[in-house]
Amino acid sequence: MSPLAGSGCGAISTEAAVPTPLPGGPMSNGTLIVGGSQAGLQVAVSLRQLGDTSPIILVGEEDHQPYQRPPLSKEFLAGEAALDSLAFRTPDFYADSGIDLVCGERVSEVSLSTSGPPGSGVAMTASGRELPFNRLALTVGAGARRLPLPGADLGGICYLREYNDAADLRTQLSTATNVVVVGGGFIGLEVASAARSLGRSVTVVEAAERLMARSVGTVISEFYRQAHLRRGIDVRLSSAVSGFQGEHGRVTGVTLSDGARLPADLVLVAVGVLPRTELAEQLGLMCDQGIVVDAHARTSDPSVVAAGDCTVQPHPITGQGRVRLESVQNAVAQAQVAAATLLGRLDTVMSVPWFWSYQGDLRLQIAGLAAGYDTQVVRGDPADEHFSVLYYRHDRLLAVDAVNRPADYMTVRKALGQGASIAPDRAADPDIPLRSLVGGPAPAAPAVQRAEA
User: Fold this and answer.
1) Threshold 0.85, pTM exceeds
2) N or C: which end of the chain has fewer CB within 10 A?
3) How far is CA 299 from CA 119, 127, 237, 248, 452, in A?
């Protein structure tokens, strides 16, 4: 049996009329972590690593144990990875660590005590189960943004956020002929690449003027447009979807706002995510395109922490403005900080954001945040499909986008972590190893009011 679906998850009985013991022991107050995400598991693991011995309850909506999500749109979809291989931990790990893992259960209500210690309270699951807690961490993640368009409920229109989504998409992809991907971001292009590698006819429809516009600069966007065209993927920019057509309850086509119609027997909608803020709003916590937290992962109620894709936070390097970071690196780093905060340790940690997107044989690696750049330096020739782009603001190194050039990515990531810079006037020479150009401290960071990444 898959370790994700095995006995490591303690599903709560929906037939219980009164509270019954949780798997692994009697119900008792401790830390309640809502959300079986990578951030949620990391909070639990970090609490134990920091010496916390109090009860920990980790509750997730999915029937599976916490697992890696990035491979869902890459290796898993291409049939190169099985569900078993995605599990973060074995079932025994949770029992051995004293972590009560509850799968397939949604926390629908949560309230804080008005008379108990700060941060204590009780949560209620959708099945009517009460979960009292002394400390609370929200790691509820985000959900796929839906398109409220005519025909959006037809069969064959898919979204990709969780394992069940990916399993359904992989099954349908095995028999599809014409695939339309709505959205030219990381997920959309990764799925498009996987579908094309299987021999499907693929069209990507993007409403913006360029691909991955929220994440990369213009040079990278144009390179990927041309690279995907060379691989046989039709890319439609500045094109909005107005509806879907179908027969017998299943999608047959996609209509664009200019009246064009694309044949489709499988559609993936990948137009971003919406942070899950419902529980935070119940608690009266400040939300602004996510749950607002400070550098210590504290919400507007400092006794409650939050981490992962559900949050917006200060810029992780400059501390200025607010950013929402959807990445494995941020989920782990922020969860580690959240665990320390729950134990009263307000450590200041600078963490360089990094991301990746593997689209077939095109491996994009990003370090830093390029928002607000005024100069970009290209190393190498994009036509060779091995190059990088460094971003600067007032000669201060901000970030790098590296395509099949991992050494440049690692050099910039390390430099940013050290607060160092790389002279832009020499960085353009691909014959000079980038690591030899890492210099002293970067110039002072200019003020940034708000950034999105």
Assistant:
1) yes
2) N
3) 11, 27, 38, 48, 19
What tokens were used for 19? 């509270």
Question: Which residues, in sequence order, are CB contacts of 311 under 8 Å at separation 6+?
Answer: 275, 290, 291, 292, 293, 297, 324, 334
Q: Of 365, 404, 395, which is closest to residue 377 (Cα–Cα)?
A: 395
**φ/ψ of residue 280, rounded to 5:** -60, -40
The SS3 of residue 332 is: helix
Query: How many Cβ atoms from other residues are within 10 Å of residue 144's Cβ?
Result: 18
Q: What does the pLDDT look like over 80-112, one tens digit per residue?
A: 888 788 999 998 999 999 999 999 999 999 999
Q: Do 133 and 111 meet the contact criterion of CB atoms below 8 Å apart?
A: no
Q: How far is CA 224 from the centre of its chain?
A: 21
d(C-alpha 308, C-alpha 328), whole Å? 8
Q: HSE-up of 151 (CA within 13 Å, CB side)?
A: 21
- Give the CA diameter of the chain: 71
Of 100, 33, 123, residue with least CA distance to 310: 33
